[in-house]
Specification:
Helix content is about 30%, strand content about 25%. With about 425 residues, the chain is of the alpha/beta class. It folds into two domains: about 230 residues, FAD/NAD(P)-binding domain, CATH 3.50.50; about 170 residues, D-Amino Acid Oxidase, subunit A, domain 2 (D-Amino Acid Oxidase, Chain A, domain 2), CATH 3.30.9.10. Strands 4, 5, 6, 7, 14, 15, 16, 17 and 18 form a nine-stranded mixed β-sheet that branches. The chain has a six-stranded mixed β-sheet with strand order 9-2-1-13-20-19, covered by helices on one side. It has a three-stranded antiparallel β-sheet with strand order 10-11-12, with no helix packed on it. Bound molecules: flavin-adenine dinucleotide. Flavin-adenine dinucleotide binds next to helix 1, strand 2, strand 14, strand 17 and strand 18.
């Protein structure tokens, strides 16, 4: 039996689906969110929760192929590709390699920087105006380096962010240790990103769900999307484990799960699950105050009043659901090189999540060519929390026909057609 039709049916209850739901409700549309598990149970749950305009540059950078090849046979390297025959992954890797050049890197940075900066502002405004209880703090982030050549290389790369109004401050060891006494001596230098911020991502998602419901949105958990009915160039029904749902518009926000369901709609979405890990602890005594990236080991450290998290690493291992002990241990070992007290007294959770990675490291935003009422809001890679508010605004502008706030050409689904 088909349910009552909503204005917008949102597929996926992660940070992106929920942010879309919020801004669509604010624009006067009714929404229903469908989620196979619990809201925020996917990649949006145990991530590092940093909001980072400073991450405007893509993963696809000049020199990345050489780095990846060097790391290929190291099971605990920050980036790992599990050796296996997978044609979709091979196509993705070739696409990624084609973007590892200075021109594409500059283009992707120019496209992403304004979205990240506005999103950072809008998330702060959302937290304040809606009273979201998610441990938001605007303390910046600090990149710590132990290798002088690496520090100098990244310092030069990040200097270009000034062109987009994103400040990066290079500081010496003494100043870094003064600002963050949880760090051990032995640093080659640090980069401070004053415009960055942090929140507790599981709380943020829970709070988004709360305000969506409070404003009349429906969120149905435990509802698995299984297929689609298409008629006259439109998605007329979404088939689920709980019967059929209908929406005037349909927003596809299925994160790393997107490609398989997109295929049923005649869409090829080159998204690979970029598996990352985190370990959440109770707070150590000597707990960092500023969110840190321990650069040579690519470990991200975030602390909130309610806990302390080590996270990151990027593994291309398909839809693998195991918790890889070697990679969890690499987080611990990496943190121990930089921090006096790298771990908290008790482990609260060990976790993995699949980042929805595109080959050009840009999200896929816009109407899908194949169905006129279908919008894609997926492929946010390493930055879905940071880009959540801007994605919600962009989707609501497309649905309502409002003047777009951004040039969406770099994010067009058609770039992969
Ligand atoms: C270790 C790690 C650290 C990270 N740190 C940061 C950070 O500091 N800052 C930042 O901005 N980003 C970070 N990210 C990235 C961020 O977590 C993701 O970009 C973001 O969560 C993607 O959100 P999403 O809503 O697209 O996907 P998800 O949160 O994965 O949501 C997709 C949802 O779709 C649902 N779904 C899938 N298939 C179906 C189906 N058939 N039927 C119904 N529902 C379905 C899933 O259950 C899931 O809940 C990190 C990621 C990882 C792994």
């Amino acid at each position: 039996m088909s349910k009552e039709r909503t204005d917008v049916l949102i597929l996926g209850g992660g940070v992106i689906g929920l942010a879309c739901a919020h801004y669509l409700l604010a624009a006067g549309r009714s929404v229903t969110v469908l989620e196979q598990g619990r809201v925020g149970g996917g990649s949006s749950h145990g991530n590092c929760g940093t909001l980072t305009p400073s991450h405007a540059a893509p993963l696809a950078q000049p020199g990345m192929i050489g780095t990846a090849l060097r790391w290929l046979l190291k099971p605990d390297a920050p980036l790992r590709i599990k050796p296996r025959f997978d044609p979709a992954l091979l196509r993705w890797l070739l696409g990624f390699a084609a973007h590892c050049n200075a021109r594409d890197c500059a283009r992707a940075t120019a496209a992403k920087a304004p979205l990240l900066s506005r999103s950072r502002e809008w998330i702060e405004a959302l937290v304040r105006e809606q009273g979201l209880d998610c441990e938001f703090e605007a303390l910046g982030t600090l990149y710590a380096f132990r290798d002088a050549a690496h520090f100098e290389e990244v310092r030069q790369q990040m200097a270009h962010l000034a062109d987009y109004g994103i400040d990066v401050e290079a500081i010496d060891e003494a100043e870094a240790l003064r600002r963050e006494p949880a760090l051990k001596p032995g640093l080659a230098g640090a980069l401070f990103n004053p415009g960055d911020a942090q929140l507790r991502p599981d709380r943020y998602v829970a709070e988004l769900a709360r305000i969506v419901r409070a404003h009349g949105g429906a969120i149905e958990e435990g509802v698995r999307i299984e297929g689609f009915v298409r008629e006259g160039g439109r998605v007329t029904e979404v088939a689920t484990s709980n019967g059929a749902y209908r929406g005037r518009d349909v927003v596809f926000a299925l994160g790393a799960w997107s490609p398989a369901l997109a295929r049923q709609l005649g869409l090829r979405l080159p998204i690979q699950p970029g598996k990352g890990y985190s370990i959440t602890y109770s707070r150590p005594q000597r707990c960092p105050r500023i969110p840190l990236t321990l650069k040579e080991r690519s470990v991200c450290v975030t602390a909130w009043g309610s806990g302390y998290r080590l996270g990151s690493t990027m593994e291309f291992a398909g839809y693998d659901t195991s918790l890889n002990r070697t990679r969890l241990d690499a987080l611990r070992r990496g943190a121990a090189e930089y921090l006096y007290e790298p771990e908290g007294p008790s482990v609260v959770e060990e976790w993995y999540g699949w980042r929805p990675m595109t080959p050009d490291d840009l999200p896929i935003l816009g109407r899908a060519g194949t169905c006129e009422n279908l919008l894609l809001a997926t492929g946010h890679g390493m930055l879905g929390v940071s880009l959540s508010a801007v994605t919600g605004v962009i989707v609501s502008e497309i649905v309502t026909g409002a003047t777009p706030s951004f040039d969406l050409a770099p994010f067009a689904p058609a770039r992969f057609a």
